[in-house]
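pasting input
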Amino acid sequence: MSDYALELLSISCTFHSKDDPGQRYTAVADTTLRIKAGEFVSVVGPTGCGKSTLLNVGAGLLEPSSGTVKVFGQTLSGVNARAGYMFQTEALMPWRSAIDNVMVGLQYRGVPDAEARKQAEAWLARVGLSGFGDRYPHQLSGGMRKRVALAQTLVLDPDVILMDEPFSALDIQTRQLMENEVLELWSAKKKAVLFITHDLDEAIAMSDRVVVLSAGPATHPIGEFAIDLARPRDVAEVRTQPRFVELHTQIWEVLRDEVLKGYAQQLKKAA
Ligand SMILES: Nc1ncnc2c1ncn2[C@@H]1O[C@H](COP(=O)(O)OP(=O)(O)OP(=O)(O)O)[C@@H](O)[C@H]1O
Ligand SMILES: [Mg+2]
């Protein structure tokens, strides 16, 4: 079996404009990214560079224009059934209660309702929401909704976890609590994680490895850093360690120019 849980190999993604099919935009160009089983990898890059696009490719939701995706050594075609995906945008079904949202994936898999409910209740408890199962998404706070989404992803026990800026909308305290919870859950099961974030502090605090993407168009990795901070980590405490500061300085050196380029491009697009 392959050492790698997920491999994105020479991936390029070109989009065609709906109005003018002759107009093309290459978001991602020749990107290779490998994640070992049990490894926690973060990808950082400026806004609009192609992070979500890459994750969609890994999830099998978007077919790349060229390149190959492998999952545990097997070439992927169609949806990646071994991956759980926590989306950037809120993806809970508003007409379903919290518990029903967590159960839905199991039900699709044909797990009997009683068993699905039992597992969903256990996961709601694990993310600190026992007693909230009957609430609908609009009756929960933003942080609670993210917890439900986390339970919804993890209840399926995916071998590969794809997370797209899952906590960026949260206040800093809630965010750090959830980051620590994710690390604790991850350390118990050691699944492969591909974590997308804007936030370099978050990337370093959580990961085994941080990959920096260039600003678009034709985004590709321009730096890769092993994060040799001891585990278990507390995401708030780890930031005070000298080694953290050192890594932050090194990575920011590479990321800074790309962020400025990305920002300038957004302004140009908006003009
Ligand atoms: N379906 C699509 N059709 C056309 N262009 C697209 C499509 N999806 C993404 N793009 C473009 O590709 C680029 C990368 O988009 P993507 O959503 O991957 O960026 P991102 O890095 O996730 O950004 P953010 O950090 O803001 O979430 C953007 O310029 C976007 O406009
Ligand atoms: Mg995105």
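fyi The helical segments are 51-59, 98-108, 113-126, 142-154, 172-189, 200-206, 235-238, 242-270.
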